[in-house]
Amino acid sequence: MSSKPKCPHCNITLQLNKSDGIFKYYCFKCYGILSHIQSIKKSMSVDARKKFNAEVLNSSQSKISCTYCNEKLKLIQLPNIEVQIDYCTHCSTAWFDKSELPTAEQTHSPVSKTSDSKSRWYLYGKALIEIKYQTPQYEVNYAQFSENKFKYVIAALGFPTELEKDDFLLLPLFTWSLMIAIFIISAIGFKNINWFVDNLSFSTEATGISYLYRMISSFFVHANYIHLLGNLYFLWVFGDDIEDYLGEHKYILLLLSSAILGCLVFNLFHNQGPPLIGASGGISGLIGFYIMKFPKKRFLVRGRYGVLNVSSIAFGAFFIFTQLIYAFIFETSGHSNVAFSGHVGGFLAGVMFYYYTLYQEQT
User: Fold this and answer.
1) Closest alpha carbon to 202 in 282, 256, 278
2) Of 109, 244, 294, 306, which shows the fewest CB atoms inside 10 Å?
3) Degrees (nearest 5) of the Cα angle 15, 297, 44?
4) Phi and psi (nearest 5°) for 8?
5) What is the mean pLDDT of residues 247-255?
6) DSSP class of residue 276?
7) What contacts 302, CB < 8 A, 6 or more positions away?
8) How do residues 60-103 score in pLDDT, each as one tens digit?
9) What is the C-alpha separation between 87 and 237, in angstroms, rounded?
10) Where is pLDDT greater, at 83 or 31?
11) In the predicted model, is pLDDT for residue 139 greater than 60?
């Protein structure tokens, strides 16, 4: 798959829409829109999804090809509204021509019509988001409850879980590859942990090139399988959304800056401290960026009296508060071997990186 899709009509690179809206890419010339089909299905009832799946089986071939795999698209009729889309059964992406998008009147949208391209873009997204499929509300709620049972179990075990399903235009291949690399290197390190700690951990006593490369190499070394699997879980939860939003290059830059600042803050707390290992500094940066970019996303977390449904910003605020307390009370006194200060540094790097990307978008 190409990381820079092109318009199937104009053959120009599509523009990435980095808002929290339903669509991902659009063509500024013909106003066509490229979206992952799951974005559309989220607003459908169970019956409407069944009708959609039936339409896929009985679909005819479109005249245009997929912007990713170059396969011919299928013409699909969206249930209950007079909208036909071009759908790729291989990539699960949908292409909307300007004429195929519903108007504000069709969806009772309060947004007025305008010729301005940005306002028209907003109108298109708003129109599809507000589509209703005349399904009893209890049916949707029951489906959502059944869908989230497993997530409640995971949260009850102490692992924060995203309540909403992930919706990616492209698969988070770098995140998955990084998880595999971390697992393999750490598993090899468990067989000779002393050598790995001596040569790859971050040490406050290291100098020169050794001081610099250890900031990165320590990311791939872990103390045990509990330490390793815990970090991989958080990388999986937060990393895929951010990779989808930033793209691979900026995503790597975020991880690097978070890991480095995590090590530097750890150094401030320990002039001659123990060696630092683990990916948690970089992953804390992902948490910091995530809560700033997606503050309203819902998480299931374990509370004192059961599982709580909280916003990501509330989860992030609790996370950084506890890390600060533990860093100043337990880490500095030597009562804990967890590098809470590294988590704080990584988190701050993630927040700063968010404002850096925000500045780039505004300029």
Assistant:
1) 278
2) 306
3) 75
4) -70, -15
5) 93
6) B
7) 155, 156, 157, 158, 308
8) 888 888 877 777 888 877 655 566 778 887 777 778 777 665 54
9) 28
10) 31
11) no
pLDDT for 106: 41
How many angstroms from the chain centroid is the CA of residue 363? Answer: 24
Measured CA to CA, the distance from residue 200 to residue 215 in angstroms comes to 9
**118 token code pair:** 């940005």
Residue with tokens 């679909």: 59
Written as one letter, the residue type at 51 is K
Q: Which residue has the tokens 């305008």?
A: 114
The residue that leads in pLDDT, 323 or 18, is: 323
- The answer to whether residues 130 and 108 touch, using CB atoms and an 8 Å cutoff, is yes
Calpha distance 315→303 (Å, rounded): 11
First to last CA, the chain: 29
Which residues on neighbouring strands pair with residue 34, listed in sequence order? 25, 95
Which residue, 146, 145, 152, is CA-closest to 300?
152
pLDDT at 254 over 80: yes
Single out the residue of 223, 358, 234, 348 nearest to residue 301, CA to CA. 234
Based on DSSP, count helices (H) and strands (E) in the chain, helices before strands: 13, 10
**DSSP summary character for residue 269:** H
